[in-house]
Amino acid sequence: NKHIDAVKEFATTEKAQLEEFRVKYLGKKGLLNEFFAQFKLVEPADKKAYGQAINSLKKAAEEKVKELRTKLESSDQTQGQYGDLTRPGEAIEIGANHPITQVKNRVIEIFSRVGFNVSEGPEIEDDWHNFSALNLPEHHPARDMQDTFFIQRDPDILLRTHTSSVQVRYMEEHKPPIRTISPGRVYRNEAISARSHCFFHQVEGLYVDEDVSFADLKQTLQYFTTEMFGKSKIRLRPSYFPFTEPSAEVDVYWGLETETDYKMTKGTGWLEIMGCGMVDPAVLDNCGIDSSRYSGFAFGMGIDRIALLLHQIPDIRMFSENDIRFLEQFKRIN
Ligand code: PHE
């Protein structure tokens, strides 16, 4: 009877222990066989009780093995070597897109919704694509607007100063209608400070087709600022770029709700966000597009500046310092 109690109380979640238990009672040299062997030594009067006792022990042991086996098998399916598959997962630590990438992706997404594709080009450029094709011949004073890094004193090879060079390449290779934006890194030989760096990022846009007008440009910009900043009030101020005529700077009305707004907009409520204009016909012709048939508009903005603005970051150098405490703050924004 004490064996029956022990059998009934036995429990395990380990396969090996269950096997040990089975061998102990039901194995060839197990207790039960031993008890059966002793049967012939039992007094005839006790044989009946003895026989019943070992039979119920046998039954109890067999039932126990069966019961524990099914239990172990069913939990095998959920646990086993893979652990409990029904447990909720643990969050995996993953990185985040850099704030510059986040802003770039948003700009791409907004323009792709109105039919612009994305084009890219080399950061090391030649004079033609960065300057000459864009109406900036050698010794043109406007070249000084973008202080240039040359590679190994070769005046023909340089680090691109804007992604307008990609637009030139795109026009050389594609026929209108053209709707493309060109994001990328650009370089200018400027003193590094909180507000400017010797490299930064741009997205420039180009639209060339028959009958493209300044009104189309303004409408596109208004769509963009509404989607990007939630601000639809814009103004265009006359400006100058060698590759566009007429040219303009785009200001967004940011409003004056907080002290930061006041500072950012120098108290006027207007914030400059990009340059734009109608592509100069000479530029179209330089790129093999017939300017008597086609017209176009172009615009360009600095991604870093927009990211500074959106997140109210005080120093542009933070973008390239790779300080994890800074970068981690952009994890859940995207
Ligand atoms: N390429 C100009 C710059 O880098 C921006 C621009 C692009 C202006 C297209 C007008 C049209 O400053």
From TrEMBL:
Matches recorded under InterPro entries: aa-tRNA-synth_II, aa-tRNA-synth_II/BPL/LPL, Phe-tRNA-synth_IIc_asu, Phe-tRNA_ligase_II_N, Phe_tRNA_ligase_alpha1_bac, Phenylalanyl-tRNA_Synthase, tRNA-bd_arm
Reaction(s) catalysed (UniProt annotation): tRNA(Phe) + L-phenylalanine + ATP = L-phenylalanyl-tRNA(Phe) + AMP + diphosphate + H(+)
Keyword terms of this UniProt record: Aminoacyl-tRNA synthetase, ATP-binding, Cytoplasm, Ligase, Magnesium, Metal-binding, Nucleotide-binding, Protein biosynthesis
Location within or outside the cell: Cytoplasm
One Gene Ontology biological process: phenylalanyl-tRNA aminoacylation
Keyword Cytoplasm found: yes
UniProt entry tagged with the keyword rRNA-binding: no
Residues that, per the record, bind Mg(2+): E245
Cofactor note: Binds 2 magnesium ions per tetramer.
Aminoacyl-transfer RNA synthetases class-II family profile domain ranges (all copies): 101-320
Cofactor requirements of the protein: Mg(2+)
One MF term in the entry's GO annotations: phenylalanine-tRNA ligase activity
Enzyme Commission numbers on file: 6.1.1.20
A GO CC term attached to the entry: cytoplasm
Main subcellular localisation: cytoplasm
Family statement drawn from the similarity comment of this UniProt entry: Belongs to the class-II aminoacyl-tRNA synthetase family. Phe-tRNA synthetase alpha subunit type 1 subfamily.
Subunit structure and binding partners: Tetramer of two alpha and two beta subunits.
Protein name: Phenylalanine--tRNA ligase alpha subunit
Organism listed in the record: Aureitalea marina
Gene: pheS
